[in-house]
Design brief:
Helix content: 10-25%
Distance between the termini: 51 Å
Mean pLDDT: 79
Order of helices and strands: HHHEEEEEEHEEEEEEEEEEHEEEEHEEE
Radius of gyration: 24 Å
Number of helices: 6
Largest sheet: 23 strands, antiparallel
Number of strands: 23
Length: 479
């Protein structure tokens, strides 16, 4: 079936309507939903506490030092200065990383950027500014210019764990009084913008004095687009996604919260071939883009030290779940096919696909932060993301690591576990160990499998995978 037939398929709409009606009636029957008393903090304070737990930080920061860096088979001397400058609500972070190539010959540059790039593009120069921010994510006004790492919009049905690979983008959040309404937006790269959009939400019945079912009832709408989804073909139609979501609060106390939500999203990833007979009886083919659809019903559990959610997702033909993820930028660079995004593991499906998405955020101790997600659907290989920070749980030793991979076991050449730890173009990996020799002097070992921007002979800007190992000694101001 194609995307447009979704709108005219009476049977599907009938099922959705009946299910939605039953769900709404059921939840109204269980009012009120909270055992919260007047002494507890309001919804805005609780949302802020959850947001702080959800903020992941798996990137190196706050280091002044130098050492050796190996990128693939090339060796460099590295100088790194990463000051963080707090000025009240304003925060500024710089990222001056220089690589010296002692083996440069002829016209080859000796001084390169962080991943071995030449200083020949605005995006590379913008990397000198790691971030400039005002406020925090759950403040009424929050804006951040800089690196975007593991960015999720809404529940993550369209954008989940997105990274702009150290490019400098913009994130802007606006929230009304007591989080009754708001908007979250993003733009991936100031120097070469291509991905942008956001989500608006409204809690129309929120009241401080009455925390019943209607208090946290939330409606949301999302729009995100990539105006250059295929780097191999100029003038390709943008990849666009539209989503609607609704959230139902089920139960809430000072230490526990249970939510139910439903997302439906549409992508313009389907292309139908239309044949028409011309006057000369020759058959011409034209391409008409239709909408693919996906639906996710999720349950979220929030505790004082953990957040867990699980979703059951169903997709129509051509739909790509969480299309804007961590490896999206690199994956589209490798796509040989402009019409069907095979680079994301999508094949032409004749049957509906379905499966589960799960996420766990766990902070058992102040020094430990873990985040993990797993997606597993029929007819699509699984996708995994894991990240953790361990700060001085062992005296003087700190660790930071993350790993992500899509299409695990694709092609049938290896099984799930055989392909899981094989680093290739479908994966990204980073692990950093810091040891404090004597405060604030630290030694650092960093191993990465990541992506850097390159420009082809045809002038096309894209990403390629690199292996990177660094040995550093320096002064640390933040971990």
């Amino acid at each position: 079936m194609n995307g447009l037939s979704f709108f005219s398929n009476a049977e599907i709409w009938k099922r959705l309507s009946v299910s939605a009606t039953i769900a709404i009636l059921f939840f109204f029957l269980i009012l009120p939903t909270s055992a919260q008393d007047e002494s507890q903090s309001g919804p805005a304070d609780e949302d802020k506490a959850l947001s702080e737990m959800e903020q992941s930080d798996f990137l190196t920061s706050g280091l002044y030092g130098g050492g050796l860096t190996f990128i693939d088979d090339d060796a460099y001397v590295q100088l790194q200065l990463q000051p963080d400058i707090p000025l009240g609500k304003i925060g500024i972070g710089l990222d001056l990383i220089l690589l010296y190539n002692p083996y440069a010959e002829g016209t080859e540059p000796q001084i390169l950027a962080e991943d071995g790039e030449s200083w020949d593009s605005p995006s590379t120069w913008l990397r000198l500014i790691r971030y400039v921010r005002y406020g925090q994510p759950y403040d009424p006004f929050y804006v951040r210019f800089g690196e975007l790492d593991y960015l999720t919009i809404g529940h993550g049905s369209i954008m989940s764990g997105y990274s702009n690979y150290d490019r400098r983008g913009v994130r802007l959040n606006l929230r009304g009084a007591k989080n009754r309404s708001g908007v979250e937006t993003m733009l991936n790269d100031i120097g070469n913008p291509s991905i942008f959009g956001g989500r608006v939400f409204l809690r129309p019945f929120q009241r401080e004095e009455n925390n019943n079912f209607l208090t946290r009832f939330e409606l949301g709408a999302t729009y995100l687009t990539d105006i250059n989804p295929n780097l191999q073909e100029a003038g390709e139609e943008p990849l666009s996604a539209i989503g609607l979501d609704v959230g139902f609060p089920i139960f809430e106390t000072s230490t526990f919260r249970l939510d139910l939500y439903d997302d439906i999203a549409f992508l313009n990833t389907l292309s139908d071939t239309v044949e028409s007979e011309s006057e000369t009886t020759a058959v011409e083919e034209s391409s008409a883009t239709n909408l693919a659809w996906g639906n996710a019903v999720g349950v979220g559990f929030a505790f004082t030290q953990a957040i867990f959610k699980i979703e059951y997702r169903v997709f129509g033909d051509g739909y790509i779940p969480s299309v804007f993820d961590y490896t999206y930028e690199s994956a589209k660079s490798l796509s040989p096919e402009p019409d069907v995004p095979q680079f994301l593991g999508l094949e032409t499906m004749t049957e509906p696909r379905r499966g589960f998405f799960s996420q766990l955020i766990w902070q058992p101790l102040p020094q430990i932060h873990f985040l993990g997600t797993l997606e597993d659907y029929t007819n699509i290989e699984p996708k995994l993301y894991m990240g953790t920070t361990v700060s001085k749980l062992v005296p003087r030793l700190s660790l930071r690591a993350f790993y992500t991979k899509r299409d695990i076991g694709a092609g049938g050449e290896t099984n799930f576990f055989g392909d899981l730890f094989d680093l290739d173009e479908k994966s990204a990996f980073s692990i950093e160990a810091r040891y404090t020799v004597f405060p604030p002097v630290e030694t650092i070992v960093l191993r990465e499998y990541t992506f850097r921007r390159v420009e082809t002979a045809e002038g096309v800007s894209q990403f390629e995978p690199i292996h990177k190992t660094s040995f550093m000694v320096g002064v640390s101001t933040d971990f």
